[in-house]
């Protein structure tokens, strides 16, 4: 009974931010379809990319650089920092606000004195997080589909990008669950936001450094971003089950720990 | 644990690291009574209330509220409890009405007394349509009282309830508590305003540095305290001749003020009667004096 009431409250608090994130994510992917090179422009773009410093080529994706294509560029749009930022903003905002934010503001006193289990608070936060991420992922794909509807590109179909949107959702579901765990252990939203942002940025930077610096290449599996490679998904035509399993497992374990931690802590 | 009582604590304690916020609290509050919980800041009043609500895990002992053993995280019995935190905080972007509606829905009981409380405390429709971020501290406190009592709880835990209220509204609050009691609500009020406790409560518990130093009737507390006796004489007297009756707190050659235990009063009056007594005043202690004596 209490979870729908808590979800309504989340909706009231975050609906405007969610609307902006959805519009921004859709518009960004639509904009990418405007600027991707058409088939007759790819040779020129490939030449330009050879002039790009190696660390930046790694950021773009070696496969994209080696096989310049409209599909590749559109795929890059799904790991562009702006696209990632849309998901990260939602994950951190909702996760930090749901638990640590309420504790820090003092409103958790009012909530926790009601007949609402601690698990319901974590559960409602997790549902709000997941629904928002799903809507942002759907908006990303809708932006791509909308762009491809008005600009037809050879060998590129909107359906190709469904797995990318789905993996974006899964990646940030895992990040969001970790953020929820951090929030469950924190007393202030500021502390939770700092930790969550730090963990996400650290994970992103670790993935990047492990790709450009072979000495620490063995650390790459520790980054969540390692498990979302759009170029590979586009090449293989689907998501690697092992990558999805790792992200799913991180999400599940972090959520379980968040439930356990919040149920036992002092408020 | 004993059943039937609204609140029972047995050896309840809470430590934060090396700080013992509450030690070995054993207390019983009967249904329908108004119980005052007194103590200076940091004595452990708020910690006690948070332990009773399951917001904190006890380090030692346990508590029963409305016949249910309190566990961290609470339980269904919380539907019967109204709570006003000491530092009440709301969601700034919600209106007053949305706040009350949200909290009532989470309580799971109809807000039977909301309209009456709003009326009594002077929160008008216009006020409730405004976002809480525009409220003054006094209005937030009123909103806090309404949310705590709107669903007619069986037990109300009120932490410093009159903080920020002007004297007129405080008077209304006393009436609200009296009405709640008539409805059968047990009220547990923490306060350091002695006159308030004296006025509101049937019984009182006094905390000092996390330990309960007194629990009993307000009248019993006052009885237990020493009387202030002021005697004026027609001729000079030697104050040292009265020291064995109690503490001499002020003396001049012809006037003497002592604090005397109730049991010593007959002997003292008999002794004074042997002297040229010009005036005699025996004062019962106020709760404030009783309070200060416990904290000296």
Topology:
The complex is a heterodimer of chains A (about 270) and B (about 300).
Chain A: H1 2-35, H2 42-50, H3 54-60, H4 62-66, H5 70-76, H6 81-105, H7 107-112, H8 118-150, H9 162-185, H10 189-212, H11 230-236, H12 241-264
Chain B: E1 7-16, E2 19-29, E3 34-38, H1 45-52, E4 60-65, E5 68-69, E6 81-84, H2 96-107, H3 114-121, H4 125-129, H5 137-149, E7 155-159, H6 167-182, E8 186-191, H7 194-200, E9 203-208, E10 211-217, H8 218-224, E11 227-233, E12 246-252, E13 255-260, H9 265-273, E14 277-283, H10 287-295
Helix pairs in contact in B: 3-5
Describe the protein.
The complex is a heterodimer of chains A (267) and B (296). Helix content of chain A is 77%, strand content 0%. Chain A is an all-alpha fold and 267 residues long. Chain A has one domain (2-264). Chain A is elongated, with a radius of gyration of 20 Å. The mean pLDDT of chain A is 92. By secondary structure, chain B is an alpha/beta fold. Chain B has two domains: 7-222, 3-Layer(aba) Sandwich (Rossmann fold), CATH 3.40.50.300; 226-295, 2-Layer Sandwich (Alpha-Beta Plaits), CATH 3.30.70. Chain B is built from ten helices and 14 strands. Chain B has helices at 45-52, 96-107, 114-121, 125-129, 137-149, 167-182, 194-200, 218-224, 265-273, 287-295, and strands at 7-16, 19-29, 34-38, 60-65, 68-69, 81-84, 155-159, 186-191, 203-208, 211-217, 227-233, 246-252, 255-260, 277-283. In chain B, the strands form three sheets. A six-stranded mixed beta sheet of chain B has the order 6-7-8-3-9-10, sandwiched between helices. In chain B, strands 2-1-4-5 form a four-stranded antiparallel beta sheet, with helices on one face. In chain B, strand 7 (155-159), helix 6 and strand 8 form a beta-alpha-beta unit. Chain B starts with 6 loop residues before the first strand and ends with a helix. Classes of the chains: A mainly alpha (267), B alpha/beta (296). The A-B interface holds A 1-2, 5-6, 9, 12-13, 105-107, 109-118, 263-264, 266-267 and B 50, 53-57, 72-79, 81, 83, 85, 87-91, 93-94, 98, 102-103, 105-108, 147, 157.
